[in-house]
């Protein structure tokens, strides 16, 4: 028996992810994510109270270098990719209310 | 010459002798692509003009300055940047994006003298196991067109297996090189995490992603691996360690090597014919002087659940950058900036990518972090320890690459969990950061390829190449 995710949770997570979903997609997500999260419960079979989490398999924490600026030489190519631009700026929709 | 069946090394030698020129090879490759594409659709774009120019350039290089793959055609997956060309990850959200720089691994390809022929199809943002989640439409398995080529590097595997190009680059986050290689009857290798620079590879899950070679035989894969390996100042996770001459390992033989067979990989859910073929190949390896013992990797059964928390979590963060501001698709349906983000992402991402962003965002959100993400990171430690303990006793581990051969188009599309479980044998390797290769180990009675996976200790690509080459020899004598 599949367990759906609460539709309000789906809407809230979509808001966090800045992801507009259609009504139909919300229903699908509720079903699919419910199934997948149910499957993940199997991890609770394991006692991990004395296990350290792994975030990097290399065991590297920080890789440091001198903070020296160098020219990339590709500024124009980057700007050419902008969907909308004004001079050397990316143009976006209004951010603040008038 | 029989171009579609030739290995990169054979082509390289013909080119070096002057039997054929790079320009002629380019013409032959495009003729083959034109013949195969209507059937398999491996490429999303071919770089015809660029390849012709590049061949002319290569012909100007004096003999003593030519790279080890001078004149050999290659393909790259559509998530690798090549300056001046589009990189889209088979997604609408990257529509129109032109790479401003070249990925380090791709640059290494060109420095070795290869000719980049085009970019290959994939599941959108490398999320998928069938190459069906692509805005360009599906790629088909060269062995049977009703079947998937595997994914996400399905285009690269199909291009190599069908004879279009002898070599291709793919990327592997949970099996995306090895699984399509197995489904298409090619050799696909995922290097140790950190062996190859990820600079210029569009990030999916940064603690798991690696670029690697797909080839027609083990010798070619070894050479391509050497070409792309090494430290890169632009990727701080790339390792500053010596790069072996992997080609030397190929053919060194397996005498005296100890090989482990993990019981967890040979149980329920594995096709009988795959099990038989893998075990009979292992028996042959024993006859060649390898020692074989049964081992246990007790946390194998938890790998898929662990992976589908960690990978989507990392993906939800990595894919936040696709918002319609600096490049790619931008929605016109928005009144303010916040709406523009959400509308752009809603229109630009396909359903599987949305599913994973939602899953990852949920797993990382307040109140759920400890239960999902932290828990998964701890189980990841247990999975790594399993391998660590096993490699105290053995030099390499053999498993099937996949539990079944290539499945039919559409078969798993409506059930995401079933699709996720298709990667059950490849995922643990990424979680542990180890090198692994899939090599063909025969065919079913329906002529579908079977893949055998060899897993090695970190940075011991030489071990897995030795075993893979021995497997290749066994299969060649049986044919």
Entry keywords:
heterodimer; A: 98 residues; mainly alpha; Histone, subunit A; two-stranded antiparallel ribbon; B: 479 residues; Amidase signature (AS) enzymes; eleven-stranded mixed beta sheet; 11 strands
What would your notes on this structure say?
The complex is a heterodimer of chains A (98) and B (479). Chain A has 98 residues and is mainly α. Chain A has a domain at 7-45: Histone, subunit A (Orthogonal Bundle). Chain A is 35% helix and 4% strand. Chain A starts with 6 loop residues before the first helix and ends in an 8-residue tail after the last strand. Chain B has an eleven-stranded mixed sheet with strand order 1-3-2-4-6-5-10-11-9-7-8, sandwiched between helices. In chain B, 62% of the residues are buried. The model of chain B has no long low-confidence stretch (mean pLDDT 96). By secondary structure, chain B is α/β, with parallel strands linked by helices. At the A-B interface, helix 1, helix 2 and helix 3 of A face helix 10, helix 11, helix 12, helix 13 and helix 14 of B.
């Amino acid at each position: 028996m599949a367990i759906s995710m609460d539709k309000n949770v789906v809407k809230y997570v979509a808001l966090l992810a800045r992801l507009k979903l259609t009504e139909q997609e919300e229903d699908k997500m509720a079903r699919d994510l419910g199934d997948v999260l149910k499957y993940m419960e199997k991890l609770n079979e394991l006692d991990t109270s004395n296990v350290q989490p792994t975030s990097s398999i290399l065991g590297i924490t920080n890789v440091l270098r001198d903070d020296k600026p160098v020219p990339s030489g590709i500024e124009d190519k980057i700007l050419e990719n902008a969907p909308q631009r004004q001079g050397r700026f990316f143009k976006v929709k209004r951010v603040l209310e008038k | 010459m029989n171009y579609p069946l030739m290995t990169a090394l054979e082509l390289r030698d013909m080119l070096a002798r002057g039997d054929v020129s790079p320009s002629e090879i380019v013409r032959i490759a495009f003729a083959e692509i034109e013949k195969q594409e209507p059937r398999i659709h491996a490429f999303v774009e071919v770089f015809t003009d660029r390849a012709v120019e590049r061949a002319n350039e290569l012909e100007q290089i004096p003999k003593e300055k030519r790279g080890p793959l001078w004149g050999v055609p290659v393909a790259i997956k559509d998530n690798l940047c090549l300056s001046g060309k589009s990189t889209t990850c088979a997604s609408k959200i990257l529509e129109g994006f032109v790479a401003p720089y070249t990925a380090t691994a791709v640059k290494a390809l060109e420095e070795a003298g290869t000719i980049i022929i085009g970019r290959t199809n994939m599941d959108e943002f490398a999320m998928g196991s069938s190459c069906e989640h692509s805005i360009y439409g599906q790629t088909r398995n060269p062995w049977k067109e009703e079947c998937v080529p595997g994914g996400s590097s399905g285009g690269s595997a199909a291009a190599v297996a069908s004879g279009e190009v002898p070599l291709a680059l793919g990327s592997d986050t949970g099996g995306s090189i090895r699984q399509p290689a197995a489904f298409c009857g090619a050799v696909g290798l995922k290097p140790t995490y950190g062996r190859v620079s990820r600079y210029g590879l569009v990030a999916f899950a940064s603690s798991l992603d690696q670029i690697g070679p797909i080839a027609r035989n083990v010798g070619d894969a070894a050479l391509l691996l050497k070409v792309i390996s090494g430290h890169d100042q632009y990727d701080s996770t790339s390792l500053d360690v010596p790069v072996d001459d992997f080609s030397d390992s190929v053919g060194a033989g397996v005498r005296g090597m100890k090989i482990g067979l993990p019981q967890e990989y040979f149980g329920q859910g594995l096709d009988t014919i795959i099990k038989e073929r893998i075990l009979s190949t292992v028996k042959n390896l024993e006859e060649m002087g390898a020692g074989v013992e049964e081992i246990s990797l007790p946390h194998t059964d938890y790998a898929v659940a662990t992976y589908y928390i960690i990978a989507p979590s990392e993906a939800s963060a990595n894919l936040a950058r696709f918002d319609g501001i600096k490049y790619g698709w931008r929605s016109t349906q928005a009144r303010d900036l916040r709406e523009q983000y959400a509308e752009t992402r809603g229109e630009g991402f396909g359903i599987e990518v949305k599913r994973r962003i939602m899953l990852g965002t949920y797993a990382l959100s307040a109140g759920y972090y400890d239960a999902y993400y932290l828990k998964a990171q701890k189980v990841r430690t247990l999975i790594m320890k399993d391998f660590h303990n096993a490699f105290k006793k053995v030099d390499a581990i053999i498993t099937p690459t996949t539990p079944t051969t290539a499945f039919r188009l559409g078969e798993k599309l409506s059930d995401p969990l079933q699709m996720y479980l298709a990667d059950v044998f490849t995922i643990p390797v990424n979680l542990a950061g180890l090198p692994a290769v899939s090599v063909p180990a025969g065919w079913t009675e329906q002529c579908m390829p079977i893949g055998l996976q060899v897993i090695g200790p970190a940075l011991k690509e030489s071990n897995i190449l030795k075993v893979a080459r021995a497997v290749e020899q066994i299969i060649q004598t049986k044919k």
